[in-house]
Design brief:
Blueprint (H helix, E strand, L loop, with lengths): L2 H29 L3 H24 L4 H25 L3 E8 L2 H10 L3 E9 L2 E11 L3 H11 L4 E7 L19
Antiparallel strand pairs: 1-3, 1-4, 2-3
Helix pairs in contact: 1-2, 1-3, 4-5
């Protein structure tokens, strides 16, 4: 393999890693309703994509370029997911099912979480359901904090697409969370 072919192989792999990683982040931004951010990422991603596809198709006699394209796609998918999870844009609501409702709610309020409390009867026993709003970046520590107080706590985590005060006239289609 010549130096030029090897260099082109590396460039194709790196370009696909960037392209597919951006596409993964763009997809998450679309789901969260971040239109402008998704559009900008889409533009840059499309420019990279078409440049790489053109190089591979114009040099299809080099099978190694096709392999570089596939390798870059696979690595881009992996790194894109890792980057998106690290960025952790957005809000989540965690439902905590606990028998230590008051203690857990007070502890979470004390460290700055917004907590809504609902008392319930399940199978003849009393439980409390705590709904806790938090940035995605804090959800793991929230669950860790809840588990430290009530190891038997059951958690359900939901992404928040839209949160708005309807009576105040907030736009329900905007990705802004209430505050």
């Amino acid at each position: 393999m010549s130096t030029g072919v090897a260099l082109t192989f590396v460039i194709i792999v790196l370009a696909r890693i960037v392209d597919v990683s951006m596409d993964t982040i763009r997809t998450a931004a679309i789901v969260q309703g971040r239109r402008l951010f998704a559009a900008v990422l889409g533009f840059v991603q499309a420019v990279i994509f078409i440049s790489v596809v053109a190089k591979v198709l114009l040099s299809v006699d080099h099978l190694v370029y096709v392999l570089a394209y596939g390798l870059g796609f696979a690595l881009g998918t992996y790194f894109g997911i890792a980057i998106e999870q690290r960025l952790a844009f957005g809000q989540q609501v965690t439902s905590l099912f606990t028998t230590k409702g008051t203690e857990l709610a007070n502890a979470l309020n004390a460290v700055g979480y917004r907590v809504a409390t609902v008392h319930a009867n399940v199978g003849g026993g009393e439980i409390t359901i705590l709904y806790v709003e938090s940035p995605r970046k804090r959800t793991r520590s929230l669950i860790r904090d809840a588990g430290a107080i009530d190891p038997g706590c059951f958690c359900i985590v939901n992404d928040v697409r839209v949160a708005a005060f309807v009576a105040r006239g907030d736009r329900v289609d905007s990705p802004r969370t209430s505050g």
